[in-house]
Every structure is written in structure tokens, then in C-alpha cells.
Queue: 2 jobs
Job 1
Amino acid sequence: LTVLGAEFFHRWMIACGSAVDREADRLTELDSAIGDADHGINMRRGFAAVTDALEKEPPATPGGVLMLAGRQLISTVGGASGPLYGTLLRRAGKALGDAGEVTREQLAEALNAGVAAVAQLGGAAAGDKTMLDALLPAAEALGESFTAAREAAEAGALATVPLLARKGRASYLGERSVGHEDPGAASSSLLIAALAEVAG
Ligand code: ADP
Ligand code: MG
Ligand code: MG
């Protein structure tokens, strides 16, 4: 049984920062096709703030790490993705409570709660061509393994290509949103891949 402490969550957030930094141009390019060409910039700014905040005042618990990260995303990212990802992490962190260590199964449950909060805030459901199309299957598959979660997120992000966007800026394009990967689903896949990477 793997137990995950604050250190693990800290490393996950740092790995998210590296991944969005590395892939920022691709995320912005995806957003230039069906949005306003800022998703990579938004994510990079948000996770740079997360990294800074964690280094200044490292929280002692897994829940504390996720809640601090979520707060940073909400306060530094102007776009839709900031409040949505911020809500994901804050709600998941709240679900972990003040436990010093958690299991993968507990993290899976917490992520499911976070994903439900994102759906409620944004009013989107599976198949609407949003970050949820990667996050919903990933949180579900995390009950099985980290690798299953990574694969589910990747598949979910790629499966947004043929979809018609029903939420967010991309929905303004109607049929013209078809044929492009959703930027938020792509970034969600990066965050879950970072989790699997840190889990080894
Ligand atoms: P903005 O659209 O404000 O410029 P970003 O470009 O940073 O914000 O993020 C866009 C992404 O946010 C989309 O690709 C989509 O995945 C996600 N998104 C937008 N609106 C919603 C929503 N209502 N529910 C879930 N996800 C959404
Ligand atoms: Mg955008
Ligand atoms: Mg924008």
C-alpha cells in the first residue's frame, strides 16, 4: 500500500509546473484554433505562482498543498481555466482534510469530488469538449492505478477532437470547433501525466 505525504503532492505540483512550461506553446496553439490563444500563457503563469507559493510556505499536509495550489490558480489566472482548475484542487484538497498521509484510493475519491465541483461551477458535462473530458475518466481510473489514470486522461483529451464544443469560448464557434483538440483537456492530460510520473 502506497502512502502519499505532503512531499509527494508538492512534487506533483512542481511537475505540473514543468509540464505546462514545456508544453505552453502547444497549449496556446490549440487555444488559437478554437479560443483566444492564451491557454499556455494562463497555465504557465498559474503554475509559476503555485511553485513560488509552495516554496515560500510549504504546507504540512497533502490537503494543504492542493488547497494552496488551488488558491494561487484562482488568484493569478484570469481566464476560465483558473477558477476551474483552482476549484478542482481546492475541493480535492478539502476532501483530503488534514490527514498527513493519504492512499491513492483516497486521492482518487478526492479528485472525483474536485471534478464534480468543476462540473457544477462550469455547468459542463462529459462530451461538451472541455477539460472534464480528460478529468472525469482520469479521476475514475485513478481508483485502479496511476498509469490507468494517465492513459484515461490522454484518451479523453484526444477524444475531444471530433466533438462540438458546448461550453466556454470554443462553443461560440459552433461546428467550426469540430476537428480540434480542446486546450483544457490537453492541459488536464498533462497534469495527470505529471501525477503518474511523480508516482513512478
Ligand atoms: P479562456 O477561455 O477564458 O481564455 P483558457 O484558455 O485558459 O481560458 O481555458 C480554456 C479551457 O477552459 C477550455 O479549453 C476548456 O477546457 C475549459 N473550459 C472553459 N469553459 C469551461 C466550462 N464551462 N466547464 C469546463 N471547462 C471549461
Ligand atoms: Mg483562452
Ligand atoms: Mg482568455
Note: The pocket of magnesium ion (ligand 2) is lined by residues 31, 35-36, 38-39, 79 (CB under 6 Å).
Job 2
Amino acid sequence: MSKVLYEKDIQKEVLQAKKVAVVGYGSQGHAHALNLRESGYDVVVGLRPGKSQQKAEADGFQVLPVADAVKQADVVMVLLPDEHQTAVYEESIKPNLDAGNAIAFAHGFNVHFSQIVPPSDVDVFLVAPKGPGHLVRRTYEDGGGVPSLYGVYQDVTGDAKELALAYAQGIGSARAGVLETSFQEETETDLFGEQAVLCGGLTSLVKAGFETLTNAGYQPEVAYFECLHEMKLIVDLMYEGGLENVRYSISDTAQWGDFVSGPRVVNDETKERMKEILAEVQSGEFAKGWILENQANRPQYNAINAKESKHQIEQVGKELRELMPFVKQPLQKDEKNEQ
Ligand code: NAD
Ligand code: MG
Ligand code: MG
Ligand code: MG
Ligand code: MG
Ligand code: MG
């Protein structure tokens, strides 16, 4: 088994002597900046003018243009959307890095796929929380944390690993577990996981179940409760105690159905498709497509997004959730992807 590290395994001094620039104040940025500050680290936020800037200032941070924040800092954590990192890096980050500084990322995409080539005289590391930014913040406030992977791409000072670990501790991840990885492993597993399982696999499974029921004439409200709403309750059980805990809690009828029907839905053919997806991630084919899609101003992304938002499951879901006030409201648009 790989060694998972916790609070007691981590030295904090190496980061305490330094100033951290958190560049970006979106989903991850706000969580890193607030958690690091509350863990006792010295944080400045780097942003262009806009909503995020107002939010970071309201949270009491010194907010500077990205170039100035980088100049002041010893450690620069890049928490911009992956698609915008290269441009901001070339214009405002790279020219202002000093020898012996560190540049850090929460996802290895741009470094691994050569969109950012860091200078040879800085440390380069990764701290990738395995959870959404808003939970990085919420769990920290509740005394917990989201686990993180850390990895070192380049170590010029001899301290890169200790810096990465202290950073992970600062955002609360050492409360949950910190595990070593490489930029390659983090990038490939993260892209595969979100495409095949967490995001793509899950939303497609939910939609397919919903469509099968409604096409067979069942009420959309019933199909929504069955295929989407109840998903969270099952996943909570899985999160707390694995598959065994789900199977303990569900009826034996449900468990028998799980055993005999689950492998017919996700079968050898599905696994073949998963292998294809993984191969496209590994070869850089997925990355190339996404980079080009962005260069073309996202024609396919926008078209699919518009179509998806009109799906019946979204319409019926909105109506049903309004009648369940205890269900937390979705994230406001300015909390996520504020540009
Ligand atoms: P986000 O879209 O939520 O926030 C981006 C921030 O960057 C915003 O504050 C925005 O105002 C700012 N910004 C955008 N363009 C800018 C520019 N040109 N100059 C200055 N500031 C600019 O992004 P995010 O989802 O937090 O993602 C940040 C990084 O974290 C990415 O590398 C992503 O892969 C990684 N990550 C995200 C999550 C997640 O939960 N969203 C999880 C793990 C890793
Ligand atoms: Mg500097
Ligand atoms: Mg990801
Ligand atoms: Mg992820
Ligand atoms: Mg049972
Ligand atoms: Mg049931």
C-alpha cells in the first residue's frame, strides 16, 4: 500500500517562512486562500479586476494584479481555469518568477501536456484536492478536510516535497490523507475519472435510467426521484462505508438486483469504452481536442451545454427541488466559473 500522510507526518516550517500567492479566487482559489490563512500562512491573492476580486477583498485579502502578487510571493499557486492558465502564465506569471521560487498547480494538465513549460530555476509542485473547491472550504470549516494528491515535477531548492506537503496541510488535506503522485498520474487519472465515472459516467447513467422510465410511460417525477434524487442517499452510504455499507442498508431484494442486473448495465463493452477513453487521455488526444475547442471559442461545448440544460430531467428537477427547501440551493453562477 502507498503511504498516506497525515498531520503528524508533515513539517510546517518550510512554508511558514514564505509568502503564498493564490492566483484565482474561484472554486479552488477561495478555499485555498481562506484555509491557508486560517492555518497560519501568509497569503496574497492575485487577480484581474472583477467579481472575484471584490469577493477576495470582502474576505479581507490583499488583492493585487497577478504580476504584482507573483513578484511579492515565494510560492505561486495557479488556480485559474485550466483553459486560461497558459495565457496568464506567459503574460503575468513567468516574467515575475524569481530563481528559487515555487510554482504550483491543483491539476497537472497544463504542465503534463506542455502548455506551460516552467523555467528550470523554480520548484514545481502539485497539490490536487480530490473534491470540489466548495467542499475543500466547507469540510475545513467543519474541522475536516478533503484528501489531496501531491507531486513534485521539479525540485531545485531541495524543499519542493516539503513545500507541497505543508501546502496540502494548510488547506486541510492532512486531516483526510495526503498521497504522493506524479503530474502524469494525477492528470491521467483525474481526466479519466471525471469522464468515465464521476461526471460523464454518472450523468449519462442517471439520464439513461430517467429516459428509460419516462419513455415507458412512467411519471417524470417518479423517474426523477428514483434515478437522480436517491443517488445522493446511496452515494452518502458508499462514502461512509464503501459498497458493503450500501448493500447492508438496502433491502435484500435491492441487493439481489444489484448483483444480477448491475453487471448487465456496466459490462465488458462498457469497460472497452473506458479503455478507449483512458487511451485517448494518455495519448494526449483528449487534451488536444479540448485545447482546440477552446481556441475555436467552444462551438461544440456551447451547443451541447444548451441542449443538456433543456433536458426534461432538469425541468422536472427544478420544480421538485423548490418543494424541498432542505435541499441546498445549487451554487450561484458567480461562485463557479466567474470569468
Ligand atoms: P474557477 O473557474 O472556479 O475559478 C477561476 C478563477 O480565476 C476565478 O476567480 C476567475 O475570476 C479567475 N480568472 C479567470 N481568468 C482570469 C484571468 N485571465 N486573470 C486573472 N484571473 C482570472 O476555477 P477552479 O474550478 O477553481 O479551477 C482552478 C484549478 O483547480 C484548475 O486547475 C482545476 O483543474 C483545479 N481543480 C479544480 C477543482 C474544482 O473543484 N473545481 C478540483 C480539483 C482541481
Ligand atoms: Mg516572487
Ligand atoms: Mg478535473
Ligand atoms: Mg478531480
Ligand atoms: Mg441488504
Ligand atoms: Mg428502491
Note: The two ends are 41 Å apart (CA to CA).
